[in-house]
Amino acid sequence: MTLSMNRSIFFAAIFLSVPLIATAQGVASFPSRSEILNLMHRADAYQIENPVMKPTDRNWERGTWYTGVMEAWKATHDEAFFKQALDWGKQNEWQVGTENLGANRLFCSETWTELYLARHKSAHDPAMIAPTETSLSTPAPNSPAGAKRWYLDGGKPYVDSLYGAVVFAMLARATGKQEYLTIMRAFFDDVSRELWDQESGLYYRDPTYIGKRTALGRKIFWSRGNGWAFAGIARILEYLPRNDPERPKLVAIYRRMASELIKRQSPDGFWRANLDDPEDVPNPESSGTAFFCFGLAWGMNHHILPRQTYLPATKRAYAALAAAVGPEGKVQWGQQVDARPNPAQRASTHEYVTGAFLLASGEVYKLSR
Predict the structure, then answer these.
(1) pTM for the complete prediction?
(2) Counting beta carbons within 10 angstroms of the beta carbon of residue 365, is it exposed (0 to 12), middle (13 to 18) or buried (19 or more)?
(3) 363: closest CA among 231, 222, 174?
(4) What DSSP state is assigned to residue 202?
(5) CA 262 to CA 30: how far, in whole Å?
(6) Among 139, 221, 228, 345, which is disulfide-ready with 146 (CB 3.0 to 4.6 Å)?
(7) Quick one: which of 217, 110, 101 has its CA closest to 159?
(8) Residue 246 DSSP class
(9) What is the rounded distance in angstroms from the CA atom of residue 272 to the CA atom of residue 294?
(10) What digits encode the pLDDT tens for the residues 243-277?
C-alpha cells in the first residue's frame, strides 16, 4: 500500500469535478472539516511521493512546504504532520539552509523553532534551535552578525525575504532574547522602506520594478511576492508580543494589504500573477492565492479582520484552491520559481505551492468551525 493510500481517504467532493469559475462564484460555505483534512493529507502525500527537490534539501522551496505541514498540525493536531516535520528536522540535524541568501536560509529554521515551541517547556530541546542561533551570531555576509543588510540579493532587497523574518519573532519567544526582535525590525523596515508602494498598499518584488508598467500602463505587483509578505506579516504577528512597539505598524500594513487584495480578486476566486493588471498574465495562479487565503483567514481567526468584509473573498479563494487539487493530490496552477508575474500551467506545481496550500487549509480549517 502506498503512502498516499495510507494517508488519504478518497472522497467524491463535488467541487473537484466542476469548472473552477463555477466552483468559486457564489460559494455559500467552506467544505466540511473532514474534507479539508482530507485535502491536506492528499496534497501532502502527493508531495512526499513526488518530491521536486533532492532528498537532503532544506532550502526555501522545501522550507515553505514544511511551514505548511506545521500549520496543518497546529490546526488539526493530527500527529502525522508533526512526526513528518520532526523527522525532517532530525534528518537535517536542525541546520539552516545551504543557499547563500540570508533570509532564504532561515525558512527551514521556522519549522525547527515551531517544533521547539510545540514541546512542553520542560521538554524543550536546545539542539533544535542551536544551529540557527549559531549561524545568526557568526559573522558572514549573509548573517546579521556580519553585515548590516545581510538579507540582500545581488545588492537589492526583495520582498520574498520577509517570509524569513518570521523566525526572529519565533526565536525571541523561544529564548527571551530581545535582540532577535531588534534584528527583525531593522530588516523589515529596510525592505518595506524601499519596496512598499503607499499608493497601492502593495509591495514591489524588488527595486527593478519601481516605475515599470505593463502594456496597459499599470504597475507590476507580483502576486506571490506580495503573498510572501502578507503571509509573513501574519506569521510574525502570531509570535510577536502583544505589547511590542512595532505591532501597530505591522497590523496597519497587514490591514491595508488585506483591503487592497480583496479588490483585486478575480471572480473565479484566484488572484492573477500581476495584481494590478490581471490581463497581463490572465491564467489562474494558486501559490499567491493560497498565501492570501491563509492571511485573510488568519486575520479573521485572530480578530484583526472583520468576518463580514473578508469571509466572502476567503470562501471564494478556498473553493478555487480546493478545485485546483487534482485527484492524485497535486496542487495545480502554481507558478514556477520566478521573480515576476509569469504564466502558470494547470499541471504546474512545486513544493512551496503545496506548502502555501497547507497554510491556507489550516487556517480555513480553524475558520470553518
Answers:
(1) 0.93
(2) buried
(3) 231
(4) E
(5) 18
(6) 139
(7) 101
(8) T
(9) 16
(10) 999 999 999 999 999 999 999 999 999 999 999 99
